[in-house]
Design brief:
28% strand, four-stranded antiparallel sheet, 105 residues
């Protein structure tokens, strides 16, 4: 990834019901794999589990720009993730959006 172009970064955190991590991880990894394979604008997609937490998953996604992220949410593989994960969640997911900071010259 270039350091001269700001990328659109998503950090989405999901708190899951007891015992639902394996089902959620299967959905999240499928979404990540499909995104990386089929979306030119998806540059990175990591499925993370925080140290010391048994019921939280964080998705770290990097897109070429905001439009590429919007395109991601319209892809056929996104709907099964969104619909399939909803009953696994203990509460609403939280998300934060960022742009990579460009180093000043």
């Amino acid at each position: 990834m270039s350091s001269t172009q700001p990328y659109f970064v998503v950090l989405a955190e999901f708190r899951l019901k007891e015992g639902q991590i394996p089902a959620f991880l299967a959905l999240a990894h499928n979404d990540a794999n499909e995104s990386l394979a089929n979306e030119e604008g998806c540059l990175a997609f990591d499925v993370l589990t925080p140290e010391g937490s048994d019921n939280v998953v964080v998705l770290h996604e990097v897109y070429r720009d905001r439009d590429a992220f919007e395109h991601h949410m319209q892809m056929p593989h996104y709907a099964p993730f969104k619909e399939g994960s909803a009953p696994l969640l203990a509460d609403e997911p939280s998300g934060r959006f960022f742009y990579t900071a460009i180093r000043p010259e």
